[in-house]
Amino acid sequence: MWDTSGSSYYDNVRPLAYPDSDAVLICFDISRPETLDNVLKKWQGETQEFCPNAKVVLVGCKLDMRTDLATLRELSKQRLIPVTHEQGTVLAKQVGAVSYVECSSRSSERSVRDVFHVATVASLGRGHRQLRRTDSRRGLQRSTPLSGRLERGSEGERHKDRAKSCSLM
Question: Where is this region: Disordered (predicted)?
């Protein structure tokens, strides 16, 4: 996993992170409508050029700021509003993303964890129902028993291996 900077200082080295990418998360800030411009002007072209086979997931970040009063006041001074879900959905179709998701790092509902769930499913090229989330912090699990080494190992070994991985149903 690479978190690449959008700064122009990194334009020459950022493409080194793209080979063999299965999924690309293109993120923008819901509370800053001007960040949508970079999705079209910079990230769409760059991802199509350097990793044309990767699945793209468009991510609207800072979902909690859409209803934040201070943010709404600041944007209204510029006669703007936060990016709507509909705008994000339209943009996702425009850039050829397989999904559009919104998240907030401040809440457990619609969290960053959910974004990685969507990206995992997209990179596997499977429908969203083939992985299921659990209530635990471990993330995704199979609905069938684990096979091989994990079944034969001790409970401690199973716990360690499960904590390090994402499982398929």
Answer: 128-169
> What average pLDDT does the structure give for the chain?
77
Domain 8-130 - what CATH class? alpha beta
Q: Which has the closest alpha carbon to 123: 25, 56, 23?
A: 23
Q: SS3 for 112?
A: helix
Q: Which amino acid is at 84?
A: T
Q: pTM for this one?
A: 0.71
Cβ partners under 8 Å of residue 97, min gap 6: 26, 56, 57, 58
**Given pLDDT bands bounded at 50, 70 and 90, which one contains residue 136?**
very low
Q: Domain-by-domain residue ranges, the chain?
A: 8-130, 132-169
- Quick one: tokens of 27? 């993120």
| pLDDT beyond 50 at 145 | no
**Per-residue confidence (pLDDT) for residue 92, from 0 to 100:** 95
- CA–CA distance from 87 to each of 83, 84, 100, 143, 145 (Å)? 6, 5, 10, 36, 42
Is the sign of the CA dihedral 112, 12, 88, 54 positive or negative? Answer: negative
Question: 23-29 and 140-141 as β-strands: parallel, antiparallel, unpaired?
Answer: unpaired
